[in-house]
């Protein structure tokens, strides 16, 4: 494949990925979508969407941040144990912990409804969605932190700190955590991004009072005018694209740090 | 505190989450199907047909995505030119788009008032609309899968030894021969891994199909309809459990075949 053929094909694929994004958000800021951009730009649709669906954005942020806190508290210690232990049991536990990623969200969600749908008011609460997001996102946090832990000399670091008289909490908080900050950052960005966009599970887990951003979007796509659907999509992009850029920056940084080590 | 006890305490919360909110629900799912649910699936042709369509869509998605990602990935891994970084950023931008948003993008591209339809009208032809057909669903799944597959291919291609390729070429191999005998075998673990993820995602995701409201009865859509509209819990549970088992098996097999490279 010659250079120009390759470049041409790559540009074509880029256009296939980017053009729909532009075409989709444009009606959301255009005064009259049938006249096109010449009719002027407007924030009218954005304001209308915010008035009707602002709550879904806030709920999604609330769930994403809660998921983040829980996956950090639960996932980082788990990754540490998995990195310290090399035996068959540790590998089996690791295998089990990442399983929820391999099972479609709709299956997990249906299982959650069967198991806990009738427990108290859980079904009507946003906590029900949170449970689903934690199950789905935890493997990503464990993996991101585990990858960093395995790339460094964990045992050597701990021995050195122990020889200096550091207790276990001192070693964990003062030596290990600062060294895995990069992995925690990468995992955190991943978890927030995944939670904000999660739909496969959330569609089954939500109720009319606990609608998240992607569920609201699906509703807008089937029920609302193109201008509103587009404006709503634009709001989602404004939220998710900076997160994605940060994620790629963090991944690039981790690669460089890894290369230096 | 002994190391062993500390390790047990540190991993206990993760195991508790896994056990309570994944293992128990999946167990419930397996049982809720009951003998009736599983028999219905196996005897009613429409469920088997839906399974067939789902596997077909997933296989086509995987093949098309791997083809595109290999071509683009090899090109980007081999060439350095101004704007390469920007191009890579554009190609991976959709990485974080959920399936439901991708469905909307397909509508705006190939729907009734979509870009393709407007262009075909302006050119004096007929209105071309394919968003709601099998082609539209495929387009969405391929769109969804290209960014992540591409990243895997680029990472693997950059690890390939360029000297092997040069050696093959200097021994008189044609470009196609180099691709077939050197590049593809070298990339095959990464392609297997990425392909499996692609296949499993296309089998289990339903955001795109939901947004398109297409008439293609992929399995996740059937599960959703059985559960919400028909309240047919046994069939929905049985289908979900088998679907989960299938995607998990595909990923586990691929991971074995690719030597642990699969996610």
Describe the model:
The complex is a heterodimer of chains A (261) and B (263). With 261 residues, chain A is an all-alpha fold. Chain A has helices at 3-29, 44-84, 88-97, 99-102, 105-116, 126-151, 154-163, 168-179, 181-197, 202-205, 213-223, 226-260. In chain A, helix 2 (44-84) packs across helix 9 and helix 2 runs parallel beside helix 12. The mean pLDDT of chain A is 90. Chain B has a single domain (46-257), classed as MetI-like fold (Orthogonal Bundle), CATH 1.10.3720. Helices cover 79% and strands 0% of the residues of chain B. Chain B has helices at residues 3-32, 34-43, 45-78, 84-92, 99-110, 115-122, 134-159, 162-170, 175-204, 207-212, 219-228, 233-257. Classes of the chains: A mainly alpha (261), B mainly alpha (263). Chains A and B meet through helix 1, helix 2, helix 3, helix 4 and helix 5 of A and helix 1, helix 3, helix 4, helix 5 and helix 7 of B. Chain B: Keywords: Cell membrane, Membrane, Transmembrane, Transmembrane helix, Transport. Chain B: It is found in: Cell membrane. Chain B: It comes from Roseococcus suduntuyensis.
């Amino acid at each position: 494949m010659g250079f120009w053929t390759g470049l041409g094909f790559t540009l074509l694929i880029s256009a296939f990925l980017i053009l729909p994004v532009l075409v989709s958000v444009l009606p959301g800021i255009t005064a009259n979508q049938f006249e096109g951009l010449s009719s002027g730009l407007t924030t009218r649709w954005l304001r209308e969407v915010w008035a009707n669906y602002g709550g879904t954005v806030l709920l999604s942020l609330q769930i994403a941040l809660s998921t983040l806190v829980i996956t950090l508290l639960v996932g980082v210690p788990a990754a540490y144990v998995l990195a310290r232990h090399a035996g068959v049991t540790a590998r089996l536990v690791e295998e089990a912990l990442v399983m929820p990623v391999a099972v479609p969200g709709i299956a997990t969600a249906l299982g959650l409804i069967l198991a806990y749908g009738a427990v108290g008011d859980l079904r009507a609460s946003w906590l029900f969605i949170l449970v689903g997001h934690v199950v789905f996102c935890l493997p990503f946090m464990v993996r991101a932190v585990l990858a960093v832990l395995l790339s460094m000399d964990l045992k050597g670091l701990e021995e050195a700190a122990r020889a200096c008289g550091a207790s276990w909490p001192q070693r964990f908080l003062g030596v290990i955590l600062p060294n895995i900050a990069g992995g925690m950052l990468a995992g955190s960005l991943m978890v927030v991004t995944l939670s904000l966009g999660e739909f496969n599970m959330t569609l089954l887990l939500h109720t009319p009072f606990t609608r998240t951003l992607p569920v609201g979007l699906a509703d807008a796509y089937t029920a609302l005018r193109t201008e509103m659907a587009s404006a709503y999509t634009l709001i989602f992009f404004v939220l998710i694209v900076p997160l994605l850029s940060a994620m790629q920056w963090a991944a690039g940084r981790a690669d460089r740090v890894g290369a230096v080590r | 505190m002994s190391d062993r006890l500390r390790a047990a305490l540190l991993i206990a919360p993760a195991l508790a989450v896994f056990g309570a909110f994944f293992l128990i629900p999946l167990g419930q799912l397996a049982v809720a199907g009951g003998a009736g649910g599983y028999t219905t699936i196996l005897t009613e042709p429409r469920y088997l047909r839906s399974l067939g369509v789902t596997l077909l869509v997933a296989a086509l998605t995987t093949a098309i995505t791997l083809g595109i990602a290999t071509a683009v990935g090899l090109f980007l891994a081999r060439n350095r030119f101004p704007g390469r970084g920007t191009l890579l950023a554009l190609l991976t931008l959709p990485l974080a788009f959920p399936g439901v948003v991708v469905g909307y993008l397909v509508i705006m591209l190939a729907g009734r008032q979509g870009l393709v339809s407007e262009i075909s009208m302006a050119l004096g032809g007929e209105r071309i609309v394919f968003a709601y057909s099998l082609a539209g669903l495929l387009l969405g799944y391929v769109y969804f899968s290209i960014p992540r597959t591409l990243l895997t291919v680029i990472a693997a291609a950059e690890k390939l030894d360029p000297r092997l390729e040069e050696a093959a070429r200097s021994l008189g191999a044609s470009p196609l021969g180099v691709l077939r005998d050197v590049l593809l075998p070298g990339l095959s673990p990464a392609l297997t891994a990425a392909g499996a993820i692609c296949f499993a995602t296309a089998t289990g995701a339903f955001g795109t199909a939901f947004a398109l409201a297409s008439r293609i009865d992929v399995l996740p859509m059937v599960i959703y309809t059985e559960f919400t509209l028909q309240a047919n819990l046994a069939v929905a549970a049985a289908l979900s459990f088998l679907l989960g088992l299938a995607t998990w098996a595909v990923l586990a097999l691929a991971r074995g075949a690719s030597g642990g490279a699969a996610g």
